[in-house]
Specification:
alpha/beta, 7-stranded mixed β-sheet, 4-stranded parallel β-sheet, 35% helix, binds 6-O-phosphono-beta-D-fructofuranose
Amino acid sequence: MIRRIAINTGGGDAPGLNAVIRSVALGALNRGWEVLGIRRGYEGFLENDPEAIINLDRDRVRGIFHLGGTILGTTNRGDPFMYPVVQDGKKVPTDVSDRVVSRFHELGIEALVALGGDGSMTIARKLMAQGLPRVIGVPKTIDNDLRGTNVTFGFATAVATTTDALDKLHSTAQAHRRVMVVEVMGRHAGWIALHAGIAGGADVILIPEIPYHLDRVCEKIEERYLRRSDFAIVVVSEGAKELGADAMYKAGKDAFKEHAVLGGIGERLARQIEEKTGQEARSVVLGHLQRGGSPVSFDRLLAQRMGCAAVRYLASGTESGMVAQVGGEMVLVPFDQVVGGTREVEPGSDEVETGRDLGICFGDEPIGTFLNRVAVHGGKAPTS
Ligand code: F6P
């Protein structure tokens, strides 16, 4: 019989975090449990901040389900197994996980609901091995790259924001007869670029899973101008790479995964396109706009379904794992099936084939290849 649980949010924020916090709190309070909120991931535990733990009562979670961000704060620098501890004036990554586990025991916390991406799920699993009581993970990331679930909350909002930006960029691109190159987030997965690119009518979509050739991209752009569609929209994922090259980093390329900052490919590509095609090109980096704002209704519903499912799993069993949506249903997947890698776009997936059917260039095939393929083989049948 559970009496006290805690919630934390780790990694980059994503629209829907507050909706999950509220739904977990209400589901637990309605069962007579006490709910504690841990501020700023595990940092709240590790620094002697008197406000590190807050009581999530009904007043604390009132009116927050539609708000972006997280009332608990978050960090992607708070891994307790590599916590930056100052030694001789320098920050040294240090394993302080024992301090986190003892704080849980001191506070009498019987279970943790951890809202996060693959980094947070990996940490949760390692903390359990060190003696943390039960953990139920809830999959959060705008990148949609978490294994074990068909979808993560925050993704739909990021796609909606990006699609809206593409709509706006169309008119200015057309007015100036320019190529607009739009760099979007997603780390090493192209979900945001792919979904928003199709929804927002992009001419070229470049994703990490399909390395591109600059010539193919430029051919597509030249074809647009030849056909008198005198502008082009290129959506490039921050982790996209040219065939045989590495992704572009702004900082920390060799650092721990979440500390490396991807970026810069949009501007480089715009310069290359301008040089090769002679068409004027501009780049736009959507950046953290994609993480901001109110969650769209899909994310609000998903977040609340996942939060309530987390509480039901705590109430009804003894297992740990991550809540996931699989085939429309909520299930609990073992952490082993989630950690150790990310979920990437399948180059032969229905979404990519849809893009090809629409004539969108992915930077791999020369123009005409797709039409030839259809003429010869009738195209690829939709996947069941
Ligand atoms: O994982 C979410 C994400 O927004 C990525 O798409 C992006 O690469 C990264 O976080 C940016 O992180 P930061 O908040 O450190 O700039």
